[in-house]
Each structure stands twice: as C-alpha cells, then as structure tokens.
Amino acid sequence: MPDSHAVPSEIEIKLLFEAETRSLIEASPVLREHATVPVTKRQITTYYDTAALFLSGKGFALRVREVGGRFVQTLKSQSSEDGSLFERGEWEWPVSTDTPELARLKGTPVESLMPHLDGQLEPVWLSDVERTQHLLTHGDATVEVALDEGMVRAGQAEEPIRELELEIKSGSAAALHELALELVTSLPLRLGVETKAERGYRLRTDTLPASVHGKTPVLEQKVSAAQGLQRILGSGLCTLIGNEPAARLGDVEGVHQMRVAVRRLRSALQLFAPRLEPHSSERFTLELQRLGRILGAARDWDVFVSGTLPAAFPAGEAHEWHSLLTQAAEVRRRQAHETLKVELESSALTELVLSLMVWSEKQPFVKEDIAKKRLSDIAPDLLDRIWRKVHRRGHDIKELAEDDLHSLRKSLKKFRYAVDYLAGLYPSRQVKSCLQQCKRLQQTLGEINDMTVAAQLTDELDVGNVALAPAAGQLVAWSEQRRRKALKSLPVAWKELRDAPLFWR
C-alpha cells in the first residue's frame, strides 16, 4: 500500500498571468490582508519516464522535486477519474535523492505498470521555478497560494512559466472556487489548463495542445437534483476549458469540442430551467450563446473549407475558379479564428467557468427542497418538457420551412443531451434505442443544415466578387442537390423517433 502520508488527490486551480501583472498580484488586498507572510524558495522538479514516454501515455506523471536540499517524489494522474475540472490524483513520498524509488509506487494505480518502468526511467524534462508561497483562509477553507515564475525545459526547448496556483489544504472546494473568482474579477488572470508535466511533454514531442473529448457523468439513482446538476455542469465545463489551448491555436477539433461543450452546458441549463433561479440561469445562457456564436463562426468556416469544398470539388475535377473560392474562404476562416483567439485570451471564459461553478455549488434552485430531491424523482418531468418541444416542432415535418427545421434540429440536440445526462437512471437498452433514433434523425437534419450553411457562406463570399460567380454557382447547386436528397429521408427518420416508446414514463 502507499505510505500512510500519501495524499489521494489534490484540488488545485492554476491561473496564468503576464510578467507585468506580478506586482498587481502581490499588491492584491486578498493576499495582503488575508495571507500569511510569504516564503520564497527555488524548486527544481525533474520528471521521469521511459524514452518512449510510456507513463505519460497512460495518463500519469512521475516527478522528483528538490527544495532546499530535500527531495519529494510525486505521482500524479493527469485527470480525475470522473473528469472533475480541478481535481487530480496525487501520491507523495519523501525520498533521499533526485532519483525515483519505484518501490514507492506499490499500491498506486501504476503498480501494474512497474515492470515496464524498471530500469527504463530517465529524466525527460524539468521545471525550474521560484515559488513564493502564502497560506490564506477563505470561508471554511485553508488555501495554499503559490506564485511560480520560471521555465519548463525539455532538451533545448523551453517556455516560460508564470502561474498563480491555488491549492486547497482543508475545507470545501466551493471556497476555493470563490477565492479564484474573487481574484480573476480584480486581476488580469485566466485559467491555465495544462500542467507543467503536460507542457514538458509538448516540448519533448514538439507537438501542439491536443483536443479532448468530454465524459458524460454516470448519475446513480440516489443522486440528488443538486448533485446531478453540479456533475453535469462540471463535466461540460471540464470539456470547455480543456479544449481552450487547442482551440486558441486554431485546432479544428478543439474548436468543435468547445462548441459541443457550450451546447451541452446550455442544454443542461434548459433541462433544469423550470426549477432554477431564473435571473442567473438566463444570464449564463446569454453568455454561453455569445461564446457559442464566436465558436460557431470559426467552426462553420472550418467545415466549409475542410469538408464542403473538397466534397463539392474533388481534386481531379477542380478548376481554376474553384481555387479562387477556396482562397477567399481561407481568408474568412483565418478572420474567424483570430476573433476566437482574442476572445479566448481575454478573461471572459475564465469568469464564465468560475462563476458557473460557484453558482452551481450554492443554491441555484428556486426552492431548497427541490435541490434535495432525488434526481430520479424529477427526471420524468424534466424529460417530458424537453420532448414536448421536439414533438411540437416536428409536427407535419414534410411542410416545415428551413428555419423550422433548424429549430427542430436544435431542440432535438437538447433532448439527446438530456437523455444522455439522465441515462444512468433508466434501463440501458431502452436509453440506447432512443439515442440511436435521435442520432439518425440528427444526422439527417445535420446534413440539411450543413448544406444550408454552405449556400449561405457561399453567398457571403460571392457578394461583390464576380470572379467567384462560376464556382459559387456550382457549389450552391451541389448543396441544393444534397439538401433535397436529405429531405427525402427526413419523414422516415422522424416517424421512428416520434412513435418510439418514451422510456422515462
């Protein structure tokens, strides 16, 4: 078993700052009035792995940190098992040198991996920082506040570290989130997603931040409405902020996953809407809509350039005027991504994430007795309300106009997300069947929407540029043909879902 002093997990928030912000942080009333006298020490942390980075590939980081001639070995998981935003597994032991002691790993999640590590570990990257530490009391929590400045290095590659870390030592995570929110609303700080280990891995492998796919929490029968809402929102926020580094650098999948996370968060708020305090939930919905529009613009141009144009103009059939359209679209795509980059480098996303977390941990419900009810007791009413909107919007589907089909598509997505969230409360076979029927209809509606968007974007490019007219006309005709084909399969897909048993009743 791990040593008795091992810590099973850490709850920590990392905030990034620019060099000129340090003096503002140190002068902050939060630190000056409520924190202990700071202690500054140099920390040299060496990370170990195999040459092939076997341990990193399994989601763990092994390090030895030297502070004042003493050494501490730490094993960290790169994420929590339930996808919690600021919580990671952590096991820690004092050791005698800067070389890891494999025997210490017995009883940890990597025990079965030890045969792959024995004799294979080597230093792979290191961080060298000057850390200024305070202890601070906030609400019911004692928080370690660490101001880190230095470098992370892997071979000849390096990048600067400027982080304000808030780690809870005792008390509730809610108090930690409130402290972080208080700091970011008064200082130019933004959430940092990557750990020092992840940054070292990127430098070692010369790669960019990768996109991440969200994990839907599995909710048990006994979970309360308040707990269910917190876990659903937490998983969405984890996906949202987890994709920020990739999306900020223009990664197509990172942008897509951030947009999906925004939709899932909005769907969660709508699912619980009748029982939530309306002012705050509506304010969060509006801010998510605003962010969603910026992400949506970048995503639409990504799909247009990377998917629509290659499908409409296969390489062997492309003409010179096709390249003119592609070039014009690339310009709009870069503009949309630049707008997104500016947004993500602001404090808006950080404030949204922390505000939503703090709100969900307090009393977001209209009545306290609703928060304490089992989610399984109110789930049928929640699903009924979302389903009724889908059913109403799908009525007489053959006669629906373009805008009506778009509204149906959005409602269907929200229904599918709701079913996904509450799936753990019902028999898996029935839920799976419903999700499959939703997916089929969603794919058809998605094809119709993609072709409509393609025509709209083509019109935007074509305005005032007669040289694009031949390619634009061809693309609009191609889009319309695909749209009509999808429309033909729509009634059957709708009937399958409409006539299916409602598993929650």
From TrEMBL:
Q: Which Pfam families match?
A: CHAD (PF05235), CYTH (PF01928)
Q: Which GO terms describe its molecular function?
A: inorganic triphosphate phosphatase activity; metal ion binding
**InterPro entries from the UniProt entry:** CHAD_dom (IPR007899), CHAD_dom_sf (IPR038186), CYTH-like_dom_sf (IPR033469), CYTH_domain (IPR023577), YgiF (IPR039013)
Question: Which parts of the sequence belong to the CHAD domain?
Answer: 222-499
Question: Organism's domain of life?
Answer: Bacteria
Using the record's annotation, list all stretches that form the CYTH domain: 8-207
- State the protein's name: CHAD domain-containing protein
Give the organism, scientific name.
Acetobacter estunensis
Lineage runs:
Bacteria, Pseudomonadati, Pseudomonadota, Alphaproteobacteria, Acetobacterales
